[in-house]
Design goal:
- The structure is a single chain.
- With about 300 residues, this protein is α/β, with parallel strands linked by helices.
- It folds into 3 domains: about 90 residues, Winged helix-like DNA-binding domain superfamily/Winged helix DNA-binding domain (Arc Repressor Mutant, subunit A), CATH 1.10.10; about 100 residues, D-Maltodextrin-Binding Protein, domain 2 (3-Layer(aba) Sandwich); about 100 residues, 3-Layer(aba) Sandwich (D-Maltodextrin-Binding Protein, domain 2).
- It is about 45% helix and about 25% strand.
- The protein contains 10 helices and 14 strands.
- The strands form 4 sheets. A 5-stranded mixed beta sheet has the order 4-3-5-14-6.
- Helix 1 packs across helix 2 and helix 2 crosses helix 3.
- The radius of gyration is 33 Å and the shape is rod-shaped.
- The protein starts with a helix and ends in a 5-residue tail after the last helix.
- About 30% of the residues are buried.
């Protein structure tokens, strides 16, 4: 016999003062409610009710057990209400991983703003360039959501496009004075290049769009990094030409420390993704963060 159902039947019988009324309230037969109470007494080893054909009274043990049952039901109601509240106001820990460069320049501000409007969440922001290749990587590291500037193209994760990142080819004036300025993408094959790794399927192939269509050139790497800020430093030091997100070099372009190259050729923006393990439904706290980040990026120039 279901313990919860027998307890519920017992409480209804006592409060109604009648097996018939309690059965009607529960949508059960009178015989089944009677049986529930009998099974409960057998399991507990005490008499809870004194029954006659005309009256029903509660024993001392029955009164104590009634108090216990009602307290338990109240606690269930409180817990269920808390769970329902959590669906509309997420609570608990939330761990987010963001690439170092983009996180330092932009995404740290976004996550801080999110934490301010979601005080019930305990947010942890991890700034590191981590390659998530499968859903289990998230579980193993305790990560709820990762922000990436490249697609994982893996069925075990779900990717939400939350914006796009503009990329630019640039170099320092000192490098250009020594090596010359490329006039077209094909010229890059003869230059020292600084390559951003772990972004594209082939990091050494740089793709452009010109008046005559798409162009691709294979570059020679003299320095490579998975950090746009490290590539910025290498470019400023005159090591070569780099292809990096515009946000990482915007100040240097404005000051003249770096020079934008190949202005007649466009580089397609690359999508910015929020990624989490695939599940029947994303946890509410994760979905709320995805929506927040999408709105936050749309309202600001993160390029």
């Amino acid at each position: 016999m279901d313990r919860f159902r027998t307890m519920e039947s017992y409480v209804r019988v006592v409060r109604a003062g009648s097996f018939t009324v309690a059965a009607n309230q529960l949508g059960l037969s009178r015989a089944l409610v009677w049986r529930h109470t009998g099974e409960l007494e057998t399991r507990l080893g005490v008499r809870l009710l004194n029954r006659t054909t005309r009256s029903l009274s509660v024993t001392d043990e029955g009164r104590a057990y009634l108090d216990f049952c009602e307290q338990m039901f109240r606690q269930i109601d409180v817990s269920e209400h808390a769970l329902g509240h959590a669906r509309t106001e997420p609570a608990g820990p939330l761990k987010v991983a963001v690439p170092k460069s983009f996180g330092t320049v932009h995404m740290a501000d976004a996550v801080v703003d999110f934490a301010k409007v979601q005080p019930r969440l305990r947010v942890t922001l991890i700034l590191e360039d981590v390659s998530f290749r499968r859903g289990y990587d998230f579980v193993e590291r305790g990560i709820d959501l990762a922000v990436r500037i490249s697609s994982l193209q893996n069925a075990s994760v779900i990717e939400h496009a939350i914006g796009s990142i503009e990329w630019i080819v640039c170099a320092s004036p000192d490098y250009l004075a020594q090596a010359g300025r490329p006039a077209k993408p094909a010229d890059l094959s003869g230059h020292a290049c600084l390559v951003h790794v772990n972004v594209a399927a082939n990091d050494h192939i740089w793709r452009f769009q010109g008046l005559k269509g798409a162009l691709a050139v294979k570059v020679t790497s003299v320095f490579a990094s998975n950090s746009a800020l490290a590539l910025r430093k290498a470019a400023r030091a005159g090591l070569g030409i780099t292809l990096v997100p515009r946000y990482s070099v915007a100040e240097d372009l404005a000051s003249g420390m770096l020079v934008a190259l190949l202005p007649r050729y466009k580089i397609a923006p690359r999508p910015l993704f929020a990624v989490h393990p695939r599940a029947a439904s994303a946890p509410q706290k994760v979905q709320v963060l995805v929506d927040f980040l999408r709105d936050w990026v749309a309202a600001r120039d993160v390029n």
